[in-house]
Design a protein that fits this description.
Organism: Denitrobaculum tricleocarpae
CATH topology of one domain: Rossmann fold
GO biological process, one term: ribosomal small subunit biogenesis
Order of helices and strands: HHHHEEEEEEEEHEHEHEHEEHHHH
Strand order of the largest sheet: 10-9-8-11-13-12
Shape: globular
Helix content: 25-40%
CATH architecture of one domain: 3-Layer(aba) Sandwich
CATH class of one domain: Alpha Beta
CATH superfamily of one domain: P-loop containing nucleotide triphosphate hydrolases
Number of strands: 13
EC number: 3.6.1.-
Radius of gyration: 23 Å
Protein name: Small ribosomal subunit biogenesis GTPase RsgA
Largest sheet: 6 strands, mixed
Structural class: alpha/beta
Main location: cytoplasm
Distance between the termini: 45 Å
Length: about 375
């Protein structure tokens, strides 16, 4: 049976401001941004599905009366929208993304790793204990800014310390564009304090290291124990991996929440604008330096160093900015070089295949 999407299609293009109940795929995060990329006819022939899990050899996709696995693809990540080709699922069309979280993959080959796509809000989760790390929080915020995702810093286990206000003040100093919320990830606090970002049809991502309470937070938002949790090590407050893969969880009657394994290493790449947004004050100062290629280390006429000497900026924050700039530049350059080599290799392979085909044709 061919489903009629015409009525839904027109309502999607009108936006999400109406009071009508959300359709099934709208509750999965379908928005006008995606509807504008296709026609009613295409949608009827190839229904939209969302990737909710990525396995080594398969993708778990769900849609309107669709819940199945299809072959895995290296260009697809959790949160992506596909137009499902029922005859050739591996050839399903990948729709343009509204946002994309990515990092340089761990290891020495400097490949790009896709984390998640089409996220509206990123809950950057940290604990009010030894896990709290300003530099790590800054990385996640820069990652969200680069992807044009709304970042919200969520400080868990605030009920277990008498210094929660100090943690709050440090987190709020990261950027005046980032909301910071302290809470106990258990019970009703998450629903109350995070409710404005958890509206139906919205897609959220919980990012952070292991043991900070991401899974506990998602369970609280869902109102049911959907994800297994474990405690942290008492000696250093480090967490154990509970989540082993990235997975979108559908909160009954509400949003979708992405749970991610704790990332011990978050190397930024292609994130220059995100770093610029995070350190907007330092970026503005750098535009006043005498030399356009100033490294803000020893150069004469450096506006950044002058601000440091006068006490206008913090030296530790300046060092973190320099480190992120250097890391991003290195990773972006090496990835660009890798892409160039891959492109050249692909061109060579196509030429060889073309020549082989030509010889077969000449012989025939």
């Amino acid at each position: 049976m061919t489903r009629d999407y015409s009525q839904f299609f027109s309502s999607s293009l009108q936006g999400a401001g109406s009071e009508r109940p959300l359709s099934k795929i709208e509750s999965l995060g379908w928005q006008p941004f995606f509807a504008q990329q296709i026609s009613v006819e295409e949608m009827a022939q190839m229904p939209p599905v969302r990737v909710v899990e990525v396995h080594r050899s398969a993708l778990h996709v769900i849609g309107d009366d669709i819940d199945q696995t299809i072959p895995s693809r290296p260009d697809v990540t959790v949160g992506d929208w596909l137009l499902l080709d029922s005859k050739l699922p591996a050839s399903s069309r990948l729709l343009e993304r509204k946002s994309l979280l990515k990092r340089r993959a761990p290891g020495t080959d400097r490949q790009l790793q896709l984390i998640a796509a089409n996220i509206d809000t990123a809950f950057i989760v940290s604990s009010c204990n030894q896990d709290f790390n300003i530099a790590r929080l800054e990385r996640y915020v820069a990652l969200a800014f680069e992807a044009e995702i709304t970042p919200v810093i969520v400080l868990t286990k605030a009920d277990l310390t008498s210094a929660s206000e100090d943690y709050l003040a440090q987190a709020e100093a990261i950027s005046d564009r980032v909301a910071v919320v302290t809470l106990d990830a258990r019970g009703e606090e998450p629903k109350v304090k995070l409710g404005e970002w958890c509206k139906p049809g919205q897609t959220l991502a919980c990012l952070g290291s292991s043991g900070v309470g991401k899974s506990t937070l998602i369970n609280a938002l869902a109102g049911i124990e959907t994800i297994r949790t474990q405690g942290i090590r008492e000696d250093d407050a480090k967490g154990r991996h509970t989540t082993t893969r990235r997975q979108l969880h559908v909160v009954p009657g509400g949003c979708l929440v992405l749970d991610t394994p704790g990332m011990r290493e978050l190397q930024l790449t292609d994130a220059a604008s995100g770093i610029e947004d995070l350190f907007a004050d330092l970026h503005q100062l750098s535009s006043q330096c005498k030399f356009g290629n100033c490294q803000h280390v020893t150069e004469p006429g450096c506006a950044v160093l002058q601000a440091l000497e006068s006490g206008e900026i913090d030296e530790r924050r300046l060092k973190r900015w320099r480190k992120l700039l250097a890391e991003e530049a290195l990773n972006s350059a090496t990835l660009a070089e890798r892409r160039s080599k891959d492109k050249a290799f692909g061109k060579m392979v196509r030429q060889v295949i073309k020549q082989q085909d030509k010889r077969k044709w000449d012989k025939g």
